[in-house]
Design goal:
235 residues, mainly alpha, Serine Threonine Protein Phosphatase 5, Tetratricopeptide repeat, 12 helices, repeat, coiled coil, ANK repeat
Length: 235
């Protein structure tokens, strides 16, 4: 007879045979595998990157939208793990790419935290919003900066994430990368990427302002040239 512990272990270790046996024995794919945190078998499989077990659980009617006690879905777990096959399996089964946990972290925030460039690209292609804001008004790029994840930073910037965005403390991703208390050997690379992006954003804004000012002056010159004709018409 399949046991709960055996079922959980199968999901954690990717043991398809044991997981299938547990389901056939009547164990629910939606049971609470961890009472303290509220994790489900699907969370365990996703957290460990076991796409085949994920597919098996979904076939067994696992709730793909189930959340743990922090509001994390299985897609959050897969995004943090970064396994491309696990993410693909969940997305193909219509996992919610906009799902947010109790801190309003989306799956893209989770992927950004863990530095998985391929995961970020897959989530963005599926519709994840690079402008999504968490409970502190931080974007995924803020998270990538705080955790000093250059791969995440690069992927998000390529997807047009705003390097000048500010959270509710008026801090940019660059500020967080510079002053984060998270130890990382990638601090210099992260800061350099964000410095370059912020400088480029300032240049782009300055160029836009210049074009608008030139357009305004051109319109004013046109109005002045037409003024004599307007005066004549009135006379």
């Amino acid at each position: 007879m399949a046991s709960l512990d055996g079922f959980i272990k199968a999901c954690m270790e990717g043991d398809v045979v044991l997981a299938r046996a547990a389901l056939e024995a009547g164990l629910s794919p939606n049971l609470e595998a961890d009472v303290e945190y509220g994790t489900k078998p699907l969370h365990w499989a996703a957290d460990n990157g076991h796409a085949t077990v994920i597919g098996l659980l979904i076939e067994g009617r696992a709730d793909i939208h189930a959340v743990d006690k922090q509001g994390n879905t299985a897609l959050h777990a897969a995004a943090c793990n970064g396994d491309a096959a696990a993410i693909s399996t969940l997305l193909s089964s219509r996992a919610d790419v906009a799902a947010a946990d109790s801190n309003r972290w989306t799956v893209l925030h989770a992927a950004a935290c863990c530095g998985h460039r391929a995961a970020i690209a897959a989530l963005i292609e599926a519709g994840a919003d690079v402008r999504a804001r968490d409970i502190q008004e931080g974007t995924p790029l803020h998270v990538a900066g705080h955790y000093r994840q250059p791969a995440s930073i690069r992927a998000l910037l390529e997807a047009k994430a705003d390097p000048a965005a500010k959270n509710n403390e008026d801090k940019t991703p660059l500020f967080l990368a510079r002053f984060s208390d998270v130890p990382s050997e990638h601090e210099d690379a992260s800061v350099a990427l964000l410095e370059e992006a912020q400088a480029a954003a300032r240049q782009k804004l300055a160029a836009l302002r210049q074009r608008l000012e030139e357009k305004k002056r051109s319109q004013e010159r046109g109005w002045l040239r037409s003024l004599p004709a307007l005066i004549c018409c009135r006379d």
